[in-house]
Amino acid sequence: MVSLVINGQRISAAPGTTILEAAREAGIEIPHLCYHPAFPPVGTCRLCAVEIEGLPKLEPACSTNVKEGMVVRTESPRVVEARRNVLELLLAEHAMDCPICDKAGECRLQDTYQAYSLAPGVYAEDKTRRGKKIALGGGLLLDRERCVLCTRCVRFLESVTKTSELGVFERGDRSEIGCVEGRLVDNNYSGCLAEICPVGAITDSDFRFKTRAWFLEARETICPLCGRGCAVFLESHPGFPRVPGTAKAYRVRSRRDERVNGHWICNVGRYGYGYLEKSRCRELAGPLAKTLNLKAATDVVAPLAAELRALKYKGRQTRVAVVLSDWLTNEELFLAGAVFRRDLEIGRCHLVGPRDGSPDGMLLTAERSPNRAGAKALGFNTEETTLEALARDTDLLIVFGPFLQDRFRPADIASAWAGVKTKVLFTPRDEGLGAAFDLVVPTVWPAEKDGSFTNCQGLIRSFSPALAPPPSAVPEWRLLTALGRAVGLNPSFYIPFRSAGDVRRAMP
Amino acid sequence: MKQAPAVLFEILRGAWITARHFTVNMVFHTLRLFRIRTRRAGAVTIQYPEVKKPIPPRHRSLHRLMKRSGTDRPRCVACMLCATVCPSECIVVEAAEDPDPDVQKVPSRFIIDLSRCCFCGFCVEACPEDALRMDTGRIDLAAYDRGDLIYDLERLLR
User: Fold this and answer.
1) What distance in Å separates the CA atoms of residue A126 and residue A20, rounded to the nearest whole number?
2) Which of A23, A175, A504, B2 is the most core-located residue (most Cβ within 10 A)?
3) Which chain B residues contact residue A104 at CB under 8 A?
4) pTM for the full model?
5) What does the pLDDT look like over A305-320, one tens digit per residue?
6) Range of the domain at B144
7) B49 prior amide bond cis, ω within 30
8) Is B57 part of a structural domain of the chain?
């Protein structure tokens, strides 16, 4: 370890780390635009220049390695003055259209200007006019007036996706970012470009003008759209207090997790958040809800438990079939196993998830469900099943999740299951599947509940709610706990489960 | 009953104040009638709404959205700073794309709910484009319906 002094604070860092990284470890933030922990430093922005005792000039902290006995000052008057000058030059050609820029509020240049300069422009000349709205492909838009030529985008496409669609053209003050040989950006990670751009030069048409960054509330969650389970921030608007319906998810941002996704997420996860709202199942539905006069989702538990208990006492538990999904958390699958397999001794517990897609070789896996590994570990049957096999000699059919529809047509389901007496569906989404069921109970998506997923690498990671679910929707683990208690075969087992965390502690 | 003398005293004191104002104003008006210049004029009741008091230039009255010079389109770029700064949360802005690359962002919806507005003028202060002003001089904003107090883009541009 190398020991050095930064701003009078004695810190030690591994040899080979840069001053910027060492300072960051110690909690000292050095402003920068072009540095990104995922790429080797280039030192184009010069904002991170710091004063090192014994050296005549300021040195860029992002590309200077730590040395034994180094004395670094990051906030000395000389450094602050240099930063102000660098900002003056960066802003000399910057468009300054913050009011219409989607990056405003989370822009590194804006933050640094606010912290160190706040000086008005000094140049009498007009700024150079450049392309304001250039389509880069992949839904990205380039604004060359805003670009500070940090080349983060170029380096990302070179080193991460290895597709190199973008490059820096021309020289000097005419330098500009452009597509190489007119080839548009086309890869499954293009959304990361808008995220790593430190200014608003590359913006995302998916988020364009939807809202402002400062209105958004970023909460940590795990992307459920493939087996990788990338760590993400789900950014939602808490909603204008007096405008109903304004609370919704606006975008997904990657969250650093070195074990799983590093800094990146794929476009499937980034732009796929529409599933949260699409055909949302919000209310208890189905003919049985009217007959039994059920109001809330939790009212379903008592009649369902009574039915299950009656079948069990008659020794007819073989006439029950359960379809679970691999979008359920480990806790829910464990509870489902405890209720249906252990207590009720139901043999037919199948798992139906969404159809597999094609993997992209990096993060995106073929399976499009977050917890297939967890379901396998808990001993669930992940093999494909047929509608006929589920309907054969069945009186009661309990289905979790909307994914039957990904594999079968709703009309086929309705005709194949016509002979089944009672069919209950627990789902957050209803795209016509609910019509085949006697009872449709609204539940929540993984982003709205707490639990844990086992990803394709076998890592078990827990998460907490990132969004508020519709008021009538209830998480599956809560329903399953109540069901286990109401079935009454093993009630003391379910008593301690007041949260998903309680379930986790009871799991093997 | 114990308080009766005190109450009576207050009533008489009020009557005395009214009588004093009446007399003083009467004297000033009479002197003016005979063209005798006095230190100040006697008080006059303004016959509102037939007669209106001039509104000082910095007075904050009904909002208006400015128009882009030479066009009928709003100058507003839907940056939502007014909605951010508004302490009574009465502004709602939604943005849309403008085909002109120099404009890019325009409001598709701009609502000020005057039934909530406290006329603090923060929205005008926050506006980076000078697109919102409170200088219309309109102060007679009462309405028979709450819905009439919700001003949309069209009414604010007028």
Assistant:
1) 35
2) A23
3) 79
4) 0.88
5) 999 999 999 988 889 9
6) 64-157
7) yes
8) no
